[in-house]
Specification:
Layout lengths: L12 E8 L13 H17 L4 E6 L12 H17 L5 E5 L5 H11 L3 E4 L6 E3 L2 E3 L3 H10 L6 E7 L12 H11 L3 E4 L4 H14 L5 E3 L8 H5 L4 E4 L14 H15 L1
Parallel strand pairs: 1-2, 1-10, 2-3, 3-4, 4-7, 7-8, 8-9, 9-10
Antiparallel strand pairs: 5-6
Helix pairs in contact: 1-2, 2-3, 3-4, 5-6
């Protein structure tokens, strides 16, 4: 069974974001702050765990990124230490994900595999996307070959197909077509988002029709007001700002997490 599938199709995955300050090996890292970054990440993940979330996604926020599938060694080591600390601070059923932006998918896989994580999020797995940092051109063959070479095939890959991080560049291709392509090369789930809930629901429906076996994770724009409606159609959501007490990048608030989870669970009944 696909590791992202839910047997009864009812339980929706609530995956909170753990946003990291710039890490060592990046231009905007503040010297001597790594212990604080690690402690903050663990506290955020623990707040998500205590609030009833199903897991988290540890995401780098380094301000400027390479568009290649690469990561500075210091940055990779730092992410590995953080991921391992989060795994140790949470329960075994809590899904820990890794995303090293912009699209360092192989480094993310390595960190997840060695640190005991469960999945990675790929900002781009198929096609290409134009970003503020340049054109991201993924190599799915390289990614899948590397995953096999380090025996990380149990580490899931969630591929963005239409989101704030990925928009298909060059020619017309529907969200459903991108989803099918991602599933074909080996994605275990896809992630999509749109700020307009009605548009997001149409996107979900089109992907569901094209590739019914592929789990769909919302990649943002959910909150306490729309979560029940959107997650009735999707299989889960990456949830950030609405769980942070001071807005994006702020402290994760256990009470806000519990409220969000309660809304989703109530809608599942």
């Amino acid at each position: 069974m696909n590791s992202w599938a839910v047997p009864d199709g009812r339980h929706k995955l609530v995956l909170g974001m753990v946003h990291l300050a710039p890490l060592p090996g990046t231009p905007f890292h503040q010297p001597h702050t790594f212990p604080e970054i690690l402690d903050t990440a663990v506290a955020s993940a623990r707040a998500l765990y205590d609030g009833g979330a199903d897991g988290c996604l540890i995401q780098t926020v380094d301000r400027v990124y390479s568009v290649a599938d690469e990561s500075d060694p210091a940055r990779t080591v730092a992410m590995g230490l953080i991921a391992r600390a989060v795994v140790e601070a949470t329960g075994g059923a809590f899904r820990v994900g890794v995303q090293m932006m912009r699209n360092a998918t192989r480094a993310s896989l390595a960190v997840a595999q060695v640190a005991g994580g469960d999945y990675v999020r790929a900002g781009a797995l198929v096609g290409q996307t134009l970003t503020a940092h340049g054109m991201v051109r993924p190599d799915p063959l390289e990614v899948m070959s590397y995953r096999r070479s380090i025996d990380a095939e149990s580490v899931g890959i969630v591929a963005d197909i239409d989101s704030m991080h990925f928009t298909w560049h060059g020619g017309e291709k529907t969200t459903a077509e991108v989803a099918r392509a991602a599933g074909t090369v080996g994605a275990d789930a896809v992630s999509l988002s749109h700020p307009d809930p009605r548009t997001a629901l149409r996107m979900i429906a089109s992907v569901r029709e094209a590739v019914p076996h592929l789990p769909i994770i919302l990649a943002g724009h959910t909150n306490h007001d729309n979560a029940a409606r959107l997650l009735a159609a999707a299989d889960g959501a990456f949830v950030g700002t609405c769980l942070e007490s001071e807005g994006w990048g702020g402290k994760v608030d256990t009470g806000l997490v519990r409220r969000y989870v309660d809304i989703v669970r109530e809608a599942e009944r």
